[in-house]
């Protein structure tokens, strides 16, 4: 009997002796948590060479293996855990995933592979489970095969943040008709490919912070009428085209911090919109009239207003835009 089997056998005996015990743990090992309809196995810093699935309870619903140097995993490691609903393999050393990894896991809805070393994904790798949430953050991915997910999938939340994407995986995104949240922050995107997001009609939250976007097409979000939150901070945007948010009647939060914006096209900000505008090099003359009026009319709908300051001209540098008189901008109040 190996040490993992011995450990879980001990846990099983303890649980039979103490019927009302909900959680059993051991320093540096795995912890079992029992709830009414859940059995959680949580392993942190265990240094597994291979996942000891046979040592886990057969009715495990949630499995979390974190910081454990796991370098490979196969469908044989997982198929006996057919009740799995959530699988988290955060901060391991996985470089590849077999195409049949999730075979037999027909109840799996949440998969988190954050912080591994994945550079590519096998075709059909996510075909065997009805995933609702997929996290691939902080890997080394620069592209994704369109066939990683089946055409008729149920994915609602996708996290591709902190990877190596220089362009959107358009063919892959076109399969995600049910997607509600898309996270692509901390990549290397320089543009949004025209039409790349039109297949996401249910999208509500879009995270594009800390990329290299210099401009956006006026039609970039026309296929996303349900967008409620958009995060564009930390890019290189110099302007926003007129009408870019015309179809976003549900948009309530817009983060434009730390871009290269000097002014805003009239009509960009709706009166119902909460906006974060600090950290831009605003040019304080008559071209700033629209933003100046919007800030004054929407006192409760801006954040960090003390940091919305003029960058140019020199004699206006550092002045808070909300405190500038209309005459200083050469406009009528």
UniProtKB/TrEMBL annotation:
InterPro entries: Leu-rich_rpt (IPR001611), Leu-rich_rpt_typical-subtyp (IPR003591), LRR_dom_sf (IPR032675). It is found in: Membrane. Its main location: membrane. GO terms for cellular component: membrane. PROSITE patterns: LRR. It is a single-pass type I membrane protein. Keywords: Leucine-rich repeat, Membrane, Repeat, Signal, Transmembrane, Transmembrane helix. Residues 1-23 form the signal peptide. It holds the Pfam family LRR_8. Gene3D superfamilies: Ribonuclease Inhibitor. GO terms for biological process: axonogenesis; positive regulation of synapse assembly. This is Leucine-rich alpha-2-glycoprotein.
């Amino acid at each position: 009997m190996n040490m993992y089997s011995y450990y879980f056998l001990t846990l099983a005996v303890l649980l039979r002796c103490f019927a009302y015990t909900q959680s059993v743990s051991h320093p540096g090992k795995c912890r079992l948590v029992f709830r009414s309809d859940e059995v959680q196995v949580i392993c942190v810093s265990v240094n597994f060479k291979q996942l000891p699935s046979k040592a886990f309870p057969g009715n495990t619903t949630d499995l979390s293996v974190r910081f454990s140097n796991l370098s490979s995993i196969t469908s044989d490691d997982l198929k006996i855990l057919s009740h799995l609903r959530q699988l988290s393999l955060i901060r391991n050393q996985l470089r590849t995933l077999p195409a049949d990894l999730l075979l037999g896991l027909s109840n799996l809805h949440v998969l988190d592979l954050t912080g591994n070393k994945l550079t590519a994904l096998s075709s059909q790798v996510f075909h065997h489970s009805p995933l609702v949430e997929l996290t691939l953050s902080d890997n080394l991915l620069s592209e994704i095969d369109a066939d990683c997910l089946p055409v008729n999938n149920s994915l609602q939340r996708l996290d591709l943040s902190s990877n190596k994407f220089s362009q959107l995986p358009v063919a892959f995104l076109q399969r995600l008709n049910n997607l509600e949240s898309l996270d692509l922050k901390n990549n290397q995107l320089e543009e949004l490919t025209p039409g790349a997001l039109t297949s996401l009609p249910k999208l509500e939250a879009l995270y594009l912070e800390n990329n290299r976007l210099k401009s956006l097409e006026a039609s970039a979000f026309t296929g996303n009428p349900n967008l409620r939150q958009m995060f564009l901070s930390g890019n290189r945007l110099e302007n926003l085209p007129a009408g870019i948010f015309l179809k976003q009647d549900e948009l309530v939060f817009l983060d434009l911090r730390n871009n290269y914006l000097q002014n805003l096209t009239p009509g960009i900000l709706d009166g119902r919109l909460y906006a974060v505008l600090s950290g831009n090099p605003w040019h304080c003359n008559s071209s700033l009239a629209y933003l100046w009026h919007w800030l004054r009319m929407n006192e409760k709908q801006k954040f960090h207003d003390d940091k919305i300051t003029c960058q140019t001209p020199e004699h206006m540098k550092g002045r808070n835009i909300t405190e500038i008189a209309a005459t200083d901008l050469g406009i009528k109040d």
